[in-house]
Amino acid sequence: MKPQSGATSCLMLREGTIFERSTPERKGFQLSFPEVPRLTPTTFSRTEPAELPEVAELQVVRHFTRLSSWNYAIDLGTFPLGSCTMKYNPRINEEMAALAGFCDVHPELPPPFCQGSLRLIFQLERALAEIVGLDACTLQPAAGALGEFTGLTMVRAFHEKHGSHRKYVLVPESAHGTNPASCILAGYQAITIKVGPEGYMTTASVEDAISKYGRDIAALMTTNPNTLGVFEQNISHIAELLHGIGAQLIMDGANMNAILGIAKPGDMGVDVMQYNLHKTFSTPHGGGGPGAGPVACRSHLIPFLPNPRIVHKAGIYDVEYLPDSIGKVKGAFGNFGVMVRALTYIMNHGSQGLRTVSKNAVINANYLRAQLQKKYQLGTSTPHFHECVLSDSRQIQQNGTKTLQIAKALMDYGYHPPTVYFPLTVPGAMLIEPTETESLQELDQLAEAFLEIAARIENKEDTFENAPTKTFVGKVDEVGAARKLILSVDDRPR
Amino acid sequence: MPSLPLTPDEEKKAYQTIGVHSFDDLIATIPPKIRETAQFHLQFEPEYPDLSDGLSEHELRNFFSQIANCNKTAPEVLHFLGGGIYDNVIPAIVNQLTLRGEFLTCYTPYQPEISQGTLQAIFEFQTLMCRITGMPLSNASMYDGATATAEAVLMAQRLSSKNKNVLVSNNILVDYQNVIKTFLSGQPPSLFEVLYDAAGMLNREHLRKQLETHQPCALVVSFPNAFGSLEDLRSIKSELPSSCLLIVCVPDLSALSIFEPPGKLGADIVVGEAQQLGTPMVFGGPHVGFFTARKEYLRQLPGRIVGETTDARGNPCYTLTLSTREQHIRRDKATSNICTNQGLIALRTTIYLSFLGKRGFQTLGEINYSLFEYLRKSLAHRGIHQKFPKATHYREAVFEIPELENKFDRCLQKNIVPGIRLRDKYGPDFENSLLITVNPKHTAKQLDFLVESLTS
Amino acid sequence: MASVPGGLRYTKEHEWVLMEDNIATIGITDFAQESLGDVTYIQLPKEGEMISKNDPFGVVESVKAVSDLYSPVTGRVIEVNQPLLDAPELVNQDPYSDGWMVKVEVKDTSDAEDLMDPGSYKEYIEEKG
User: Which residue is closest to A13 within chain B, CA to CA?
Assistant: First the structure.
């Protein structure tokens, strides 16, 4: 199969919005009315019913099935989206999460009635803490960004408990945009520090920041391996420098998929970290959520973890409230359904299996890099882990083709583009993360597509200005969308 | 026992292509001291004290079924729980359609050309939320009701250049109050309570006092409030100066099927939880928050937004728009640090509401309302009364039950969870108070059984 | 090559200012509109508001970028280009005439004197390149 057998060579069916399928008085889902007198309210009663569509079951099924066919997905093909870890989502996870004994549980059930759910959270927290070499973990944050905020807020609570009111969080320039945004929300100013020429932080840059800001530094927040896919080799020394002024080392575990069983953040001097069950532990991305962003920490930060904590005493699982806790960051206990999937994944692999996951992810990324560097400039020559960064510098020189066009062209070959223009430290960056679930044959095909695009650029045959051309919709007018905002059916011009 | 594609032969081939001898060469940049201690051990007592090799699907099914069975659920248990999270009947197609790999395993729709399915579904979600709340503007969804409410408070603060103070009625759900507190804990104190009055409603006298003292930029109330009572939003709005936004967090979106939407009652930002419309309770998540507002606040809206446009061939299509508000571009100036919405759950909501339809949605509201009225009358008949009887209720209310502790335990022994005890959440005034909630799965007989159990 | 008309003064943040007596007309340069791409939204202060030299007074957005507008002068906004708010593409089409943004009544007419003249600005953007 050639990769060109691309995205839109099959029958695709057009479809308006569900509102256009509506016909007055057509009956949809039927609820049975209980045997009680039917009443309607007399105060505040709604005068005009909400205009929901009126469609029958098959129309709904057809509508959403057609919509689904317009999506690219892991189940369809390779998804080399750097820093997002789009790996295959084993279906046993879905089956376990769909068990009625997990779904039909209200979080206000008294603990004796929900021992199963409490046990699952307790044991998953223990497993996640052990995997990263830290002492405890909370599963309350709904996603990575909320996890970052949770970690930062715990750090603030820790400092304040010790009478220290600090102002700054150091963030390397290669960081995810979420990191500085989370710092602001947590009441800190983010100070950007330079990344060294090899693609990782130097101790000198941290020493500089320390000499400038001293004990006003609350923490340093870094991703490791970082967003270039490079290991922060000075991490232990940097941790010592920070601890020397009472500051904390926060790790963004977005790239945990590279180091399961290969390196523990706890052994690097990390005090608190957040990671993503929807990346490393294979819970489905679902088109942007739901995720889960657990936070693990060292013992000195345990008192500040979000409430409630789940405890196991005398054979019974129960909830407990800590007096110094930062409070609640989300309703109830977090995204429990996501936790079931992640625990299934972890137990499906076992400790050896998880190490193999990272090992194969690193092998795959380097295998792909070895092929792509024939035609593309590497963003750094330092060894990569589970992802690699290319730059468009050669292609710009050859005929002015930029990363954005290369990304769009890949769609015509049947692939999701890599992450583009990130990290910011590499001009025209393409961040590529194949993950361990792709086979070498699939990587060969992906490389072939990349290299053919490069060859067409080199031979000045194409600049891919109009790509993609084979997708279900053509190039989308994003400027028009932003200038003339139509954000609901009712915004359309009449 | 995972299924990974790389064979031992391929591993060797890969090393050759890369130009290394072994895996250790690939990870040589990790300091040896860190590498030495990297192996971890997985304990799942009592069944698996050291899980090294991983379980088969068969073993996983056994293990997880056994854990799930440690939860007591329907039909063994009959519950009357609510307080923001509600049981409901979910049509089969909701699960079936959301399990499609093209929805389940796709990514955030940054590449519109290959994400039209997700984008159009979100556009439909936005339309549905606007039509139900009566607001003109909706985003693509939030984590849940509590975080959506906290984001609404942050948005109100961004909209106000001078005063950042916010009043929160202390009869909104305690979880929501606590999440707002945590979200605002990084800035100077700006949250102030408005107490509720003897009827459990927003205390107008205290509101006036707090308005004068704190000159707030927003007031947070709910509709209905945490005691199940519907606040008079229109008259609350009339108390507020024009500089103070009314934020309504709606613990119960289904109430808007039969009650006037906040958009028509003067609300400026309407946010809350949409879980009960197509998503199971799942011990509290994943659920889905919605976020709607007046049009003029567009630029300060948090989260993702989908807009309709055309493609190069002139066909209508969809794309994420206004993304310059977001963290990946704005970094520390972003309107929010959030990256995800709750895509798959918002999809569930969209499918559910599409299938339920205009009439079905009204019927849903009427079922809850009628069940509650039936229960209220039956309890009153047996001498159990509401703590706050004057207000209009939709589907839940606080009942005063003498010797609640005993009655509650006796119910549990019969596998009935009669409601949520409010003492731990709202203080000693609620010693004998029980929040009882009905849902569309209940039958008249089950309500009779509850009344019997609480009164005998 | 981006155009740099004579008779204007330029900031490092790529605003231009035209001084006529005590009235300053402010906009963004051709170089700025080119780097931003298609402008989709412009936020400007209201008439009567005070703005200060080197402080942000508005925002200009394209699909992929957003940038604050920094005032080259201190004074009171006396006129805002209303048509521009409804048709932000004017900034792309004609940054120096139809794409002007605000007119400001300045107290100190020497406010703009320390800004770059057309020659220095040309050099400045060539360096940025």
Answer: B117
Q: Among B352, B387, B408, which residue terminates a domain?
A: B352
User: How distant is the Cα of A135 from the closest Cα of chain B, in angstroms?
Assistant: 13
* Across B326-350, average pLDDT: 75
- How confident is the model over A303-349, as pLDDT tens digits? 999 999 999 999 999 999 999 999 999 989 999 999 999 999 999 99
Whether A128 contacts A296, CB under 8 Å: yes
CB B375 within 8 A of CB B450: yes
How many structural domains compose chain A?
A: 2
Q: Find out whether A409 and A457 touch, Cβ atoms under 8 Å.
A: no
CA distance C96 to chain B (A): 25
CA distance linking residue A60 with residue A62, whole number of Å? 6
User: CATH code at B201?
Assistant: 3.40.640.10
Cβ within 8 Å of B, C 28-87:
41, 43, 61-66
Same domain (yes/no): B338, B370: no
Nearest-neighbour CA in chain A from B331: distance (Å): 5
How would you write the pLDDT of chain C (129 residues) with one tens digit per residue? Answer: 789 999 999 999 999 999 999 999 999 999 999 888 899 999 999 999 999 998 989 989 888 778 889 999 999 999 999 999 989 999 999 999 999 999 999 988 888 888 999 999 999 988 865
Q: Do A232 and A131 belong together in one domain?
A: yes
The reply to whether residue C89 touches residue A478, judged by beta carbons under 8 angstroms, is no
C69-102 tens-digit pLDDT? 999 999 999 999 999 998 999 999 999 999 999 9
For residues B138 and B292, the answer to whether their CB atoms sit within 8 Å is yes
Q: ∠B442-B281-B248 over CA atoms, to 5°?
A: 95
Domain boundary among B323, B352, B381: B352
With CB atoms and an 8 Å threshold, state whether A288 touches B331. no
For the residues B171-177, what does the mean pLDDT come to? Answer: 96
Residues of A in contact with C86 (CB under 8 A): none
Residue in this structure with the two tokens 């500051």, named with its chain if needed: A247
Q: Is this structure's pTM higher than 0.90? A: yes
As given in the structure block, the two tokens for residue B63 are: 């293990």
Q: Which two tokens mark A4?
A: 């060109």
- The per-residue pLDDT for C112 is 84
What's A389's domain CATH number? 3.90.1150.10
Sorted by where each begins, the domain ranges of chain C are 17-108
Cα(B67)–Cα(A317) distance, integer angstroms: 13
Averaged pLDDT for residues B280-304: 94
Q: Which of A321, A347, A373 is the last residue of a domain?
A: A347
d(CA B12, CA B435): 64
Provide CB contacts within 8 A for B407, sequence distance 6+. Answer: B401, B418, B453, B454
What is the biggest distance separating any 2 CA atoms in chain A, rounded to whole angstroms?
78
What residues of chain C lie within 8 A of the CB of B324, using their CB?
A: 61-66
The structural domain count of chain B equals 3
